[in-house]
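Journal club prep, notes for RB
We'll compare a predicted complex against what the paper describes. Inputs for the flavin-adenine dinucleotide case:
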Amino acid sequence: MFVDSRDLTAHTILESDVCIIGAGAAGIALAREFIGTSTQVIVLESGGFGYDQRTQSLYYGENTGLPSFPVHLNRVRYFGGTTNHWAGHCRPLDPIDFEKKDWMPHSGWPITKAALDPYYVKAQPILELGEYQYENLQLFEDKTGLAGLNLDAKRLKTAVYNQSPPTRFGQVYRDELDKAPNIKVCLYANALELVANESASRVDAVRVACIDGPRFAVQSKYIVLAAGGMESARILLLSRHPSPRGLGNDNDLVGRYFMDHVLLRPGVDISFTKIGINLELYHSLHSVAGGNMFAVLAAPEELLRREQLANFRIHLVPSGPKYDRPMGGVFADVDGHEGENPIVKTRDNSIAMHMVLEPHPNAESRVYLSTTRDLFNQEKLNVKWLLTTAELSNAYRTLELVALEFGRMGLGRGYGAIFKDKTKWPGNLEAGKHHSGTTRMTDSPKTGVVDPNCRVFDVDNLYIAGGSIFPTIGYANPMPTIVALALRLADHIKGRIS
Ligand SMILES: Cc1cc2nc3c(=O)[nH]c(=O)nc-3n(C[C@H](O)[C@H](O)[C@H](O)COP(=O)(O)OP(=O)(O)OC[C@H]3O[C@@H](n4cnc5c(N)ncnc54)[C@H](O)[C@@H]3O)c2cc1C
C-alpha cells in the first residue's frame, strides 16, 4: 500500500521487520521479494509519483572534481528513482571484473561472478529482457542473419547487449506494491539520519522528515540503504550519533573510491577504406530470444591481461552528415603510419566509436559533505570525481588498439582527438551516469564499507543496495548488477528472519 507521509501525525513511530530507504531500482527490486511473505516492509521514498523541483533540489550539491560532472542531473528523486530516466542498456559484469588484478590497485570483489549468476538470470524478467543470452553470439548472428566483424580474437571481440524497454520501475511495479498488504511505501518521506545505539553496532531508528509535513521515525529489525550511488554514502555521513565521522565510517572510507564510467563520444572515428560494410548488428536493435539486443566491441580477457588494461566497450554509431576535418588526429592505418595533417574530406561511409572505459578505484575520487545546506538544513554533497593518468593511458591504448584492428582488417583508418595529444583528455570527456564505489564491498573493514553480504561492517542490522557497493565497475552498465545484488540481499535477509 502507499502512504502519503505528509498525513502522518508528527513524532509517529512506525515499525516493521525491514525498512528500505529509497524506491529506485534497488529498493523496488528488494521490496518486491517480500510480496507474499509475512515480513512487514516499510519503504521510505523521498518523492511522490512525479517530478517535484523542491524534492529534486535535495540532490543539489557542489562539484570540486572534473568539470564534466553534473552533480544533480543524473539522478532522479521520486518513486522509481533514476529508472524514470535510464536508457535500458543491460549486460552483466564479466568474470574478470570480480578478480583482484595486479595492474589495478584496490580491485577485486570478495565474491565471484558465479555467486551472482542465478540472480542475474532472475533479474532478466524484472528488467523486461528476453532470455539470458549474453555469451551466445552465434545465436544472435543466426537469428538476425547478420555477421559480426571478423575480429582477431586476441585483440577484440563482439559482445552482446540486451535492451530493456527501458523498465520504469515506478510505473511497472506500482500496482503490485500497492496491493501487497505487508509492504507500506511511504511517499514524501526523506530519511535524514540513522540513529544507532551507543556502541554503533545497531541502527535503532531512522529519522524521517517531509518537506511540508511532519517528522517521524521508523524502527525496524533490518535497515537497507537503497538511496543511490552517492546518496547512500551521504546518509551514512549525516548519521553522526554516536559516531561523529558518520556511521560505518571509522576508517574514513565512506564516500571514497567514487567511480563513474569514462565516456568519450566519440573516442575515435573510423573512416572506411571499403564501402558497403554492414555494421547493422552493432548499431541497430534486433529482436532475438524474446528480447531486444545489439552488439558492442569489447576486450577478450586475454587482451586485458596481456596489456594490463581496464575493461572497456565500444559502441559503433554511424556518423552524421559528411564533414571535413584536419588529419592531425589520424592515428593508425593498415601500416600503422601517422598522417601528414592535411584537411581531408570524409566520406558518408564512416562510423563513430563511442568508448566506455572502466576507471581505476581511487580513494581521492570521492563524495563528502559540503558546508552548504539543503531544505532540511543538512549538509549537501560535494562530488569530487577524479581520473588519473591510469585512465588516460588506458583510453589512449584502447583506442589505439581499436584503430589498429580496423586497419588490420583492411576496413578503415582511425581519427581521434586523443591521438593529437595523449597527455590530456579531449574536450568531449563525460561521466557515464553510473555512480558507484562510495560504500564499496570488501572482505575487511580496513578496505571497505560493506561485507560480502552487503552489510555495513560492525553494524549488525544495516545493509546497502545499489551501485555504491561496487568495488570496481567493469565496462557494463550497472543495472543488471544492481538488481542481482538486491535480489541476493533479499535472500540473505529472508535467511536471517526465518
Ligand atoms: C540518463 C541516464 C541513463 C542511464 N542509462 C542506463 C542504462 O542504459 N543502463 C544501466 O544499467 N544504467 C543506466 N543508468 C544508471 C541507472 O539508472 C542507475 O544506476 C540506477 O537507476 C540506480 O538505481 P538505484 O536504485 O541504486 O538508485 P536510484 O534509482 O537513484 O534510486 C534512489 C531512490 O532513493 C530515493 N532517495 C534518495 N535519498 C533519499 C532519502 N534520503 N530518503 C528517502 N528516499 C531517498 C530517491 O528518490 C530514489 O527514488 C542511467 C542513468 C541515467 C541518469
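Talking point for the session: Residues 240 and 246 are 5 Å apart (CA to CA).
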